[in-house]
């Protein structure tokens, strides 16, 4: 019996891949896709997972508290240097349409008696971000939906405007339903989504090119066919990947798009935040025609 157990253990160990194979790009992508089936990872997940205790909340896997005593370091960074926070788990809704139509309907879900509105002049120009509380349409001061932040895209020649609204994941479904109701957006907009087979073929072509250069080996499945895993579009923590993510209104001409996990968001805190941005982002030269 002991000899048979030893034989089985050797067979099981032989199936385990070495570290070099596990760290191969193709294997990493396949492993990441498998581990993100239930909880979505932020793009900074790997960095946080090595230094923080991770928790599963609101459909995401986010950092909760550091594994080391770094509270003093964070406080020092906020007061003297710069501290960066990843807020990409916040949900973003994009509204496109005529400015007058957007302001007319959005005025029903907020009130100028409390604070700023979507039509405040310095926010409407697109230079500053605003924050306010949303209510159900024409129900102020009752039926509070929750706080949101927003920013307009600066004006251009066209009369159409773009508005981005950020909210907590726990508030997204209620706010999205209310916005679709006031703008009469009930039918999903037709969007061409590439089929998985097309993406797989492109991945196979890239693998063939790499193999011809002698840099990458082919990975084959049991039937001997090329099996190249690709990154999957798995939606976000608040939406199923098979659900629509854009809605259009034939009556008002407004289009609502769910840009969650498409537009990333980071918060910089500290007196050197502007200096960090200036060194990181290089301004492009303006070209006048």
TrEMBL record:
Domain Pop1 N-terminal: 4-97
A GO biological process held by the record: tRNA 5'-leader removal
InterPro entries cross-referenced by the UniProt entry: Pop1, Pop1_N
GO cellular component: nucleolar ribonuclease P complex; ribonuclease MRP complex
Protein name, entry field: POP1 protein
Organism: Crypturellus soui
Gene of this entry: Pop1
